[in-house]
Structures are given as structure tokens and as C-alpha cells.
Amino acid sequence: MQVGATMELLRPLLADITADGLSLVGEVTAEELGLTEEDAVLPGPLAVSLDLTNIEGLVAVTGVLEGTIVRECVRCLKEYEDPLAFSVRAAFIQEPKSAPRHPKRIDPRKGRAEVVEAESEEESDDQYHYQGNQLELAPMLREHVILSAPMQPLCSDDCVGLCAQCGKDLNEGPCQCAEEPTIPTFRVVQSMKHKTGGSSAS
Ligand SMILES: [Zn+2]
Ligand SMILES: [Zn+2]
User: Fold this and answer.
1) For residue 195, what pLDDT band results from cuts at 50, 70 and 90?
2) What's the pLDDT score for residue 71?
3) CA 125 to CA 105: how far, in whole Å?
4) Domain ranges of the chain
5) Relative to the alpha carbon of 168, which ligand is closest?
């Protein structure tokens, strides 16, 4: 168990975040970020470099995350390693001490649902809460890694994908079904060019 440096990196104490700020630099693994294999596959740790500033209880976090992530190409369905590098921006505010864990309680006398503050958890994508005197950076970083996934990951921009009919990976060469419709017309054009070229030369 590697408790120590990494745990402190992901759980900085509020007292250590001064007005001048706190810099956190180190490496974190998928496990430490709480990433499961379904979220993201990381062949190695991610390099984290974060700057934290505390302005009257509002902690602003900026920085970068870099490493390698394994993605699946949408065209050929192969897994490939993709460089991962993105900037992190988040704000942490202290969770109100009396924040109710169960926001919707029905008061039978009033006959309607009391919608209390906890709905504000969804107020902003990059706003997080901390409790007590310590920040939990792992859930925020985990979310950033998941959101970094492109809608259409491609192993390469010119990946030609699989044949829709036989399923062969066309990056490895043409399949039988592809030959028939395209190549004959191409040959005709080529042989015509060849004829005119040949006649002028002789
Ligand atoms: Zn591909
Ligand atoms: Zn085919």
C-alpha cells in the first residue's frame, strides 16, 4: 500500500492552501482516482500538476493532467493508446454543515414536498463541495478523465474501419467484397490514359 505522498496529493488540507496558493505535483493511478475499467483504461499513472488558491473558503483549482489512456476506435474497434492531456478547472466550496442528505421530505401537514438545498449539487459542472478541513480531489479528477473521452475516438484520422459486409479490418488490406464495385472503373480510366500516352510517344 502506497499511502503517503499520493494520498496527500489528492486530499490536501485546507490549512495548507494559503493565500499564496498550494502547488501539487505528482502521479496518480486510475485506482487512486476511483476509475474503474469501464470508466477508463490507463496503462500507467497520470501526471498531475495543480495549483490551488483559497479565497475565503472558496478553493480554486487549476492545472493539467497528462498521461496515456486506452480507447477503442469507433471504426475498426481496435484498442489504441491515446495521449491524454487536458487542463483542469474547478472550484470547491464548503458544504453547509446542516446540509440535509435527503433533500425531498414530505411534510404531511403542509402536504407538499419540501425541496431543500441539496439540489444545488447539480448547479455547475465544475463546482464541488468539501467537508471539514480537507478537499477530496479524486472525484473531480475522475470526472475530468471521463469527460475527456471524444465522442468518436479514432485510432488514426485515416482509419478505414471494418467492411460492413464481411467484417474484415480494411486497414490490413482489402477484402473480397470490396474489389468488385470499385476497381473495374478505376482500371478503365487508367487504361485510357495509357493508350493516349502511348500513341503520342510512338
Ligand atoms: Zn481504427
Ligand atoms: Zn468485406
Assistant:
1) low
2) 94
3) 26
4) 5-147, 170-201
5) 2
Percentage with pLDDT > 70 across the chain: 70
Q: How far is the CA of 41 from the centre of ligand 1 (A)?
A: 17
Residue indicated by cell numbers 487542463? 87
Neighbouring-strand partners of residue 86: 65
- Cβ within 8 Å of residue 28, ≥6 positions away: 6, 9, 10, 45, 46, 48, 138, 141
Residue 179 to residue 152: CA distance in whole angstroms:
28
**pLDDT digit string (tens) for 84-133?**
999 999 999 988 765 455 555 555 555 444 444 444 444 445 899 998 89
User: In one letter, which amino acid is 82?
Assistant: D
**Polymer length in residues for the chain:** 202
CA of 168 to the centre of ligand 1 (A): 12
Separation of CA 169 and ligand 1 centre (Å): 9
Contact call for residues 68 and 84 (beta carbons, < 8 A)? yes
Cell of 136: 477530496
Q: Which ligand is nearest to the CA of 172?
A: 1
For the CA of 79, the nearest ligand = 1
Distance 95 CA to ligand 1 centre (A): 45
Please tell me the number of the ligand nearest to residue 163's CA.
2
